[in-house]
Every structure is written in C-alpha cells, then in structure tokens.
Amino acid sequence: xxxQRPATGIDPRSGFCAATRTFHSLRPAATLPPxxxxxxxxxxxxxxxxxxxxxxxxxxxxxxxxxxxYPSFLAAARSLAGGLWSALSLRPGHVxxxxxxxxxxxxxxxxxxxxxxxxxxPANPASTAEELAHIVALAKPVVAFVVPExxxxxxxxxxxxxxxxxxxxxxxxxxxxxxxxPVAVKQSDTAAVLYSSGTTGxxxxxxVTHRNLITLICAHRGNREIAEKEAAEAGEPPYPPMVxxxxxxxxxxxxxxxxxxxxxxxxxxxxxxxxxxxxxxxxIERYRVTLLPAAPPVLVAMIKSEEARRRDLSSLLIIxxxxxxxxxxxxxxxxxxxxxxELIQGYGLTESSGAAASSVGQEETKAYGSVGKLxxxxxxxxxxxxxxxxxxxxxxxxxxxRGPLIMKGYVGDDEATAATVDSEGWLKTxxxxxxxxxxxxxxxxxxxxxxxxxxxxxxxxxxxxxLNSHPEIMDAAVIPYPDEDVGxxxxxxxxxxxxxxxxxxxxxxxxxxxxxxxxxxxLVAPYKKVRRVAFVSTIPKSPAGKILRRELVQQAVxxxxxxx
Length: 564
Known about the structure:
Keywords: ATP-binding, Ligase, Magnesium, Nucleotide-binding. By secondary structure, the chain is α/β, with parallel strands linked by helices. The protein is 31% helix and 24% strand. The termini are far apart.
C-alpha cells in the first residue's frame, strides 16, 4: 500500500512534492524576526547573548593563548564602530575590504562594520596584486583594513588602514568617546560581500544580506535544539557550549559563517592564522576544543597520522565537514579510528550564505556519504541538465535551491546573476546531486568537473574517495586529461604517504579492483578507471579545502605525456 501523504502533498519522509516536483525542508521552521524590522546581523547576534554576558572567552588566539572575553569583545566592536562612523565617515551601503589572516582584530572589525550597516568584504591576504585589483574593481570598497604585508599590493587611491597601527588604534579610542548614532538598516541591505572560490575561473563578488545571515543564525540555533532534544530522549547529557577551532580562514564563507554562529551562540572561537595540521592537533589538546570545522582532507590526515593518535583529543565531540564531498569509505574508516567523534556533514555555497543542508544529531550522521537534509525554510529541485525536467528521489541532476539564504546577487555582474538565479528565485548550484527516499542529499560532483570519457561521465570525487582509502596514499586528486581518441582521460595526482613507494600501476590496479558507492555498491565501471598517474608533494587547494583542478589540468598538460 502506498504511504499516506499529508494534505499538502509533501511526502513526510523525503520532503518531495510530486505536484510541484520540489523537495521541501522537513526541519521545524525557525522563528525569524519580521523582515520589516530594521536590524543588522551583528545586532541580532548580540541580542541572543545571555545577560550577564557569557563568562567564557569569545575569542582565543591559538598561537599565543591570548583570550578576549565577551564583555571585552563587545566593547571593542562598539568602540571601533564609533571610530568608523566619526573618523572614517563610514555609512550604511559603504563597503570595507578586510584583508588579513584570522587574527583577534578581524572579528572585531567584522562586527563593527556590520553593526553600522557597512558591508564587510573579507579577502584572502595571499591574493596577488592583480587579484586584489579585480576584487576592488568588483566591490568598490571605500576603505581597506589590511595587515602590513598586504598594503603594498592594493591599488593606489584606495584608503588603507593597517591593522594594529597607531591609526587603527586611534579609531577605537575616538569611537569609545563618540559611539555611532542608531542607524536604521534594512534586513534586505547588503551585510557582506564575499568571494566565490574561483576554482573554475576569476572570483565573483557575492552580496549577502543581513536577512541571509539572520536566517543562518536561526538555522544553527534550530539545529542545536534538534540535537539537544535527541540527546535528551536518548538519556545523554546535552552538548556543552562549543569551543570551535578555526583552522579554516574567516575570510572564506565557511569560516565567516562559523564565526557568526559562534558569537551568536555565546561560544568560544579559537583562531589559527593559517592551517597547520600539527598545530591544529596541539590546539585541540591545549584549549579542549569540542567542535572542528574541516574539509575532508583533514579527516584523511587524521586517519593516517600517528600524531593524531598520540594527542589527547578526548574533548573533540564534533567535526563539521564542508567544502567538498566526504566519501562513505573515509567516513567509515574515521569512525573506526575515532568512534567518539561525531561527523556532521553539511553543504552550502557562498551564494547560499554557506548553508543549504546539514546532518543533525547522531542518527543522521549514520547516513554516510550524505550532506544531510535541507536547512529550515529551504526548498530544492533536482533538474535534468539536458531536458530541464525536475526529477524525483533517487534521480541525479543539477541541484537548484531557493529560500531566505540565497544571495542578493553578484556585485557588478547582472548577467552572471541572471544566469545563476532565475526569475522565480531558484539558484542553480552547478552540482550534480540526488535526494534519497529519506530526504538525504548526496553530492556526486560539480557538473563542470565531470570527466567526459568516450561519452561517459566520470565524477572525479568518486575516484578520489577510492584513492584516499589506500593506506599508502596521503592525498589524491583526479582531473580530466585531454585525449584525442576518447575526449578526456581520468588522471590521478597522488601524494604518497612518507616511506611509500607505491607505483603508477599499483594505483591504477587498486582503483580497478575497488568498489564505488553511488546509489549502491558496484564494481568500478571500465570507463571510470584511472588511466594516468602523477606523483606530487601536495595537492593545490583553495583555503576551504577544495581541489584546484584547473591548476592541476594546466600542470598535467605542461608536463606532457612523456614526463608522466
């Protein structure tokens, strides 16, 4: 007998509505403030803090151990906001560039800018002068807050304030004596200009609104309530206030979103200027970190690291996975080595404010390979790229998403905005995905990154998951290698584990003999086999951990077949 569906026509198991061919979130709807209420994301986050303020640090510098209390953090953000208003004449609608590693001053600057309605625009300090010029041309900032080594790379004519300089310190002292007046900021106003990862081309500037960020905060609070309810029903103690390690940069949407979450929850953020695996393990041990946001390569490294077994990581309760798909095999191997650490997977884009789906609670984490279920208030479609037909559960297609987390648009690029978000508000993600019958979302790969071998489509991520399961492989990436006869060959770049002498043939044979998790376990189809192998010392990745395949393709072509 067919399952009884509610009057709305939405399947309570998958969230799919057959009439509209749309998947709906089955999460409890989070209570959002009226969208007509003037407020900023900073003001909303601060309004959620307890009174008196939390008695734990808001921020800790991982390298020095310097801690900033919540009273000190709020006072610093408000003083700086006053200086930005009175001394720099920043106003709602202005954009301010922030180019710095994850230092204690950066959250203060970000929240100060948000609180006066100026848009914060965080960028990578490792960017070249050309890349920064491109960013400045897109966002048109009126001022840049930078670390000293970045100042010389900025275009001439842009006002520059060096973080930590006397000029910067004067802004806070001026603001302390002259706080900014109350400002009426619409939730629909731009709160942040973030930059897409640029793995397939030049970066785009993504305008994210205060409403987007407020919805994000509410979604995280709702997920926390779900997890706490599940724990209570299971007779388990509730999670403590999280101590989150930030090995990922807060100029990237993943880090930016997690910082906003940490402050709004009254928790502690431990900041690392740059990712270093050994230093991250040391910080987890030293500061009793409970939550680690990370990309899948970090899990692979933990599985294969002797140091990870020597360190006291007993405080670590959750690793939040984002930035790239996590393979089932890696997840299962991690669970075998670290059975007390919960893996929470999530999915999002800069264009969706960093959140669109996630797993919540211990039961959902058992859906290995999935990035969880749709975030509250969000809807999705799976669209056949060839026909435009909206597909149902179990069918692969491009993921389209819609809801209050979707960006305002690309700054200065109406054409790209129109190509990405249609007239009905659907954001075309460019990701090949499917939902199963239980409403779990699975990411297969980027549509643009699928390898075309003799007309067949080969998802690089599937082969990477297999390669990373080999005990002698520390890291791996798969790219399309151009070939006149077949179109594109799957080629693997391999980082050997120290001491390993694994050969090209052994790598290819290993993939050929393995199983690959798709809808079910099947032998690797002949067209999915790795046909070329190159050994390298590192895999180039974005700050969020995404493989920069474009760079590897260029490297492979320049190496030439004879050198492989």
